Predict the 3D structure of the following.
Amino acid sequence: MQRRIMVANRGEIAVRVLRGIREMGHIGVAVHSETDRAALHVAFADEAYPVASYLNAAELIAVARERRCDAIHPGYGFLSENAGFAALCAEAGVIFIGPSAHSIASLGSKTAARELAIRAGAPVVPGSDGAVGGFDEARRFASKIGYPVLIKAAAGGGGKGMRLVESERDLDAALRDAASEAERSFKSAEVYIEKALIKPRHIEIQIFGDAHGNLIHLGERECSIQRRHQKVIEECPSPLVALHPEMRAAMGEAALRVARESGYMNAGTAEFLVDGDRNFYFLEMNTRLQVEHPVTELVTALDLVHMQIETAFGASLDLRQEDIQWRGSAIECRLYAEDPANNYFPSPGRIERLRMPSGPGVRLDSGVYEGWNVPLDYDPLLAKLCVWAGTRERAIDRMRRALGETEILGIANNVAFFQQLLASPAFVKAELHTGFLNEFKFEAEALLDEAELRAAKAVVKPVVAAPTAVSESRWARQGLKELMR
Amino acid sequence: MSADVREIEPGKAIVVDEGRVIRVTHSGGKVLVNGKATEVDLSDPRDRRRGGGAGGANGRQEVRSAMPGKVVRVLVAVGDVVEPGQGLLILEAMKMQNEVKAKGPGTVTAIGAAEGETVAAGAVLVTVE
């Protein structure tokens, strides 16, 4: 039966979901802000309607009802983990493609999720039982569990409202910043404190359930390469789990215990930290499709968006745990409009040139096009470049080849950063941890050899007939860097 | 030996230099050569190096915005004495916040942007002397 499905999102994830909707023969309905009236996702929809904001639940639901949409796919970010939005959808008779409002509420706050995990018997990191009230309480608690500690937004995700605190001296400032960022991002200033593990890995388990009580896991993703607590490279399988296959079953079972306890259905991700002794600790459940879901899709040969839509309309999951198989190795690089030479600062602006890679084993989920003006208003993710190959080593080679075919001009971006990162011995040896990038040195100065300099001069002619000078500096000049920091 | 330039589309050429293939993509003065970014100065070189530099003598610092963004909080006031590394204001771009810090010690003599104000790249945010 053909359905009308609204995608309440933008950028690459809206494109990805609209592709799935189109593949299934349904009708894709896009919404867009004024800034996004000519955004790529609009071109992938059958119908498109303007909205004031991707965050206005009442407005989105009004559009969905007016346009007779059967369901809303929330993507990630925006309202995707907002229990109130899911509840409003249910009241309006529009299917929310995701877990129930009750599940989201029980897992949406990290403190609630933690309590639920403890009840379910999943291991958790030592931390405050609930939100911390004020500076004094925070100070007492942090000294009790010992520094370093992490401050996190109770309602948050994606690194927003999160601060690492090395010593008591920095606690007050970090609490203030985290709370105000949490308030702005999630409309809740509640923060909590937990012990920061030393050089942990971030490994997460994809789970999936239907409305009939069937729940399975689809294995893990390694997401230890992060900057500002946001992932930039993800892999499936985790190289650590690949060496210790028993971890997959154990972590999968822990994730499913949490999911069962919350009556979970649809796609979800249980995030874990893993310490040097391979102990794993449940962090939180992301009650939505994850940015990095493509690496799981590549290795399991499943389509999570199709599964989300089918089960949201009541279908039973036609997979059992023993049907899930993992084959080969997939890597994702998140291509951002940001400057890796300047603390990854966002770089909005017009994309003057854009050439994206293709060829064997390459998957591209992009939300932009040449000539698109990357707006200041949203997350600076341009595209997700994924590769698949038989082994991790070959997947790294393939990613480096694909990055070599990628050309972005006009905005600072992290293509060269990934090239260097994927070539670094520590990454190749899979010595991964969440602080990896603090130790990684990006060399902004890419020196051209003589033939390359000659080629540049031969192609690019100065406006004024004068001796051509090829600057040694990169776009992000040293001067700018010094001014910023 | 001169390089053999073969334009394959506007803004993109391959240069075959003694058999070696070099890919050159460009827009404005920004150039990618075999994926490596560089710049070619398109103006008359005699015009360069004119117009005020960022940091002058006597430790005067003009702290500028590297990117367009929005000032979410100003942490100092005119007359404040600041230390190196001290936060001056918080700039938000694309939902990410960056604390703009003082490079060196000094006294804040001017604040070029108010809270809530949107600033362009290169705008002087705070002057410290």
About this structure: Chain A has 18 helices and 23 strands.
